[in-house]
């Protein structure tokens, strides 16, 4: 692992201001989830822009049916070990379920993820009034925030399952308003998950912060996948919006590099990975 990290191509560290510049210049942003130091080194070698320690670890690492059982201690632990495998790649960590229930708890969680975990940014789901307050409070204390709208996994019970969001006109309009609201609250990045392609494009044009799609179409400013999905090792049926990049390749590193190249050249996601 350490030899891989030492041999990684020299590049400037990805920063929050750099992400805005990439959007302005039309350079697509590449993000992947990551949960340990060995895979982090692979992301670093492949030149991935952002590593996301997602609470998706509850499903792909811990074997739960949702992200809800993941605790703050779990997130801090996994964030800290991913940080050890990174150099230039920007590290983002999820605020787990109910860590954002009020400003005080969110500030404490954010401080742990950044101070102990080594994250450069925290991700938070939704745009309810108290979430907007949390975003502002974190940003005011120099903790950058990635917002997350659309199919937000922590709302799985409210949605009645992992269902595509924003197909009705009223729901689409609401998501556009929410995207503008999280930007106004201070978010520097926005993940859009499980929404129609046309809505992903509409939101991307409506905000000045970069958008990162996962099942949100090819017009977002960047893309993210769960690394287990893009390596084809997730048990059961792979999500429609994902692709097995390991198929036909001889190493994990080659698969990650192929994913990055396809995102940057606009090859992925293709129409078969998108929703109407």
UniProtKB/TrEMBL annotation:
Its EC number is 2.1.2.11. One of its GO terms (molecular function) is methyltransferase activity. 3-methyl-2-oxobutanoate binds at residues 55-56, 94, 123. One of its GO terms (biological process) is pantothenate biosynthetic process. Binds 1 Mg(2+) ion per subunit. Its main location: cytoplasm. The active site is at residue 193. Pathway: Cofactor biosynthesis; (R)-pantothenate biosynthesis; (R)-pantoate from 3-methyl-2-oxobutanoate: step 1/2. It is found in: Cytoplasm. Its cofactor is Mg(2+). One of its GO terms (cellular component) is cytoplasm. Keywords: Cytoplasm, Magnesium, Metal-binding, Methyltransferase, Pantothenate biosynthesis, Transferase. It is an enzyme of class 2 (transferase). Mg(2+) binds at residues 55, 94, 125. Catalyzes the reversible reaction in which hydroxymethyl group from 5,10-methylenetetrahydrofolate is transferred onto alpha-ketoisovalerate to form ketopantoate. NCBIfam families: panB, PRK00311.1. Belongs to the PanB family. Homodecamer; pentamer of dimers. This is 3-methyl-2-oxobutanoate hydroxymethyltransferase. It comes from Dyella japonica A8.
């Amino acid at each position: 692992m350490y030899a891989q990290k030492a041999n990684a191509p020299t590049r400037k560290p990805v920063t929050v201001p750099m992400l805005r510049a990439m959007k302005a210049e039309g350079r697509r942003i590449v993000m992947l989830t990551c949960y340990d130091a060995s895979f982090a080194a692979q992301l670093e070698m492949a030149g991935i822009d952002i590593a996301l320690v997602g609470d998706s670890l509850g499903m792909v690492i811990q074997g739960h049916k949702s992200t809800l059982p993941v605790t703050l201690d779990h997130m801090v632990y996994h964030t800290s070990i991913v940080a050890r495998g990174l150099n230039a790649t920007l590290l983002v960590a999820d605020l787990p379920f109910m860590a954002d229930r009020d400003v005080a708890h969110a500030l404490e969680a954010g401080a742990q993820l950044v101070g102990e975990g080594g994250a450069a940014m925290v991700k938070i789901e939704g745009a309810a009034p108290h979430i907007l307050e949390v975003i502002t409070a974190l940003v005011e204390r120099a903790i950058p925030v990635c917002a997350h709208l659309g199919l937000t996994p922590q709302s799985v019970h409210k949605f009645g399952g992992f269902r595509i969001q924003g197909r009705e006109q009223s729901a689409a309009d609401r998501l556009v308003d929410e995207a503008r609201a999280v930007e106004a609250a201070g978010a520097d990045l926005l993940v859009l998950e499980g929404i129609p392609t046309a809505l992903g494009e509409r939101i991307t044009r409506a905000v000045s912060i970069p958008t990162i799609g996962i099942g949100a179409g090819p017009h977002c400013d960047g893309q993210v996948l769960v690394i287990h999905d893009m390596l084809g090792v997730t048990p059961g049926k792979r999500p429609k919006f994902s692709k097995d990049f390991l198929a036909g390749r001889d190493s994990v590193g080659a698969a990650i590099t192929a994913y990055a190249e396809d995102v940057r050249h606009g090859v992925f996601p293709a129409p078969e990975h998108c929703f109407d």
